[in-house]
Amino acid sequence: MESKTLEADSFGVMTFADPVEELPSVGVAEHTNRDQQEMAYFGKTQQLKRNFGFLSIAGFVCSLLSTWECMFAVFIFGFSNGGPAGLVYGYLFCWVGTLATVASLAEMASMMPLSGGQYHWVSILAPARWAKFLSYITGWVTIIGWQAGQASVSFLAASIIQGLAILNYPGYHATRWQGTLIFYAVIAFVVFVNTYLARWLPKIEGMILILHIVGFFAILIPLVYLAPHGSARDVFATFLNTGGWESNGLSFFVGLLTSVFSFLGADSACHMSEEIQNASTVVPWVMISSIMLNGTMGLALLIALLFYLGDINNALNSPTGFPFIEIFLQATNSKSGSTLMISLILVMLAAAAIGIMASASRLLWSFARDGGVPFSSYISRVDTGTALPLYSILVSTIISLLLALINIGSTAAFNGIMSVNVAAFFSSYVIAITLLLHKRLRNDLEKDNLRWGPWHMGPVFGPFVNVVGLAYTTTTMFFGFFPSNRNPTLANMNWSCLLFGASIIFSVVFYKFWGRHSYKCPLVDPIRRR
User: How many other CB atoms sit within 10 Å of the CB of residue 355?
Assistant: First the structure.
């Protein structure tokens, strides 16, 4: 294979004489060389082991997304605001919007396959004057999103465990402190897999992908054959507005949280890029294929669930706190059968938490590598024996344990973390996609030197997809701050706007006094910025 040489352009920027995408990809050695060259292009060196191939990282992303599993867990948000019809049309809306957003991210991941993801893309795409600040803020909000995601999914798993206890032991009274302790047990399991079993994580994720697909049929078949059958009108023409909003349309947008949350996390592959072979090609294809696979399974199970709801009032008022548990019980008329189906969803949520911890810790490690967080010299360390960022895993664990304490004081405040998860993710997407769209629309060869990766949407289709992705993310992020009820109380208020706003203010102040001195933008700037 031809070796690449570095040349300096007229702006003093170091670039490859030959585009990396022209490299042949016919074997592991070629992939390894290509990956290393792409990292060197952006001033990075290989520190982590590239253990993931296409199938293992596909299992990783599909299980982390857990679209149909999470849809059950957060079903009540969309069902209360939107009802059956709102859930179906909202799901389709979010599926299309997510696909456009992920395609835009995939294009950047192919250009710059680094663990930093959004914040690194912004540092390259932003004008030189704003690159450092925008990159730093993007890094912070992305980290906030992933840390909030870790807490949200682990909390859902802990809450479902309590729901199972209520189902099988009606005398059990669930308390917040017990839920927090169960949360801690979930986190302990997740950390164990991400450290002691990390060398087998690619194989584990491959098996989880199989379970993800098999579990889909294990839930779908009992619902279809055992549950009472509803009508098409009940599913596609019945809207609910239990939040008391002025119109069904507004209620519909407030209830989008169910579908939005079910599609969160496709950028996880980006943050694992430095552990994936042939990352510039594999990562974008995995992101797109996982959204297509999970979206198809999620839609099928959503429609099945809505056709076989049974008694809606019983589902909404289930003592377990989860309507889907009551729906399973009505379908199977068996606590044992329901427990088995619920346990399958619980296992998949635990698998999602494993992937989230891996992605969150890699992102934190990458940001620390660039001096973006306090104690960066420690958090950026990689254990030489395991090639794992153990300090970043430890810090991510501590953050989750501290966030869980919020639940002891107020479950409503902790639930706000779920909306913070959406806002943080989508704000990082908006910044990155906006900068990409600006460059491709300007199309100035004098000012820009975009180095497209192997996965490229082209000059016509690309801008259209970028615009659709931006429209989707801004719309859903806006309504993500709404409470589920028009007249909220302190107990059911959506505190995400306060939590997210405080996080942004903190990151800006922190940058002013510390970050601008310690944070390092990429060592190599391959795009001419003006």
Answer: 30
Q: What is the dihedral of CA 327, 149, 480, 306, to 10 degrees?
A: -20
CA distance 328 to 319: 14
Encode 384-411: b = buried (16+ Cβ within 10 Å), e = exposed: eeebbbbbbbebbbebbeebbebbeeeb
SS3 per-residue string spanning 424-483: HHHHHHHHHHHHHHHHHHHCCCCCCCCCCCCCCCCCCHHHHHHHHHHHHHHHHHHHCCCC
Q: Is the dihedral of CA 221, 223, 228, 232 positive or negative?
A: negative
Question: Whole-angstrom Cα distance, residue 17 to residue 32?
Answer: 19
Query: How is residue 238 written in tokens?
Result: 């019945």
Please give the model's pTM, rounded to 2 decimal places.
Answer: 0.88
Largest separation between any pair of C-alpha atoms in the chain: 76
Give, for all 530 residues of the chain, the pLDDT tens digit. 333 333 333 322 333 333 333 333 434 455 567 777 777 777 777 878 888 999 999 999 999 999 999 998 888 889 989 999 999 999 999 999 999 999 999 999 998 898 889 999 998 888 888 999 999 999 999 999 999 999 999 999 999 999 999 999 999 999 999 999 999 999 999 999 999 999 899 999 999 999 999 999 999 999 888 877 888 898 999 999 988 999 999 999 999 999 999 999 999 999 999 889 999 999 999 999 999 999 999 999 999 999 988 778 888 888 998 989 999 998 899 999 999 999 999 999 999 999 999 999 999 999 999 999 999 999 999 998 888 999 999 999 999 999 888 888 766 666 777 778 889 999 999 999 999 999 888 877 666 677 888 999 988 999 999 999 999 999 999 999 998 888 888 777 888 888 899 989 999 998 999 888 889 876 544 554 45
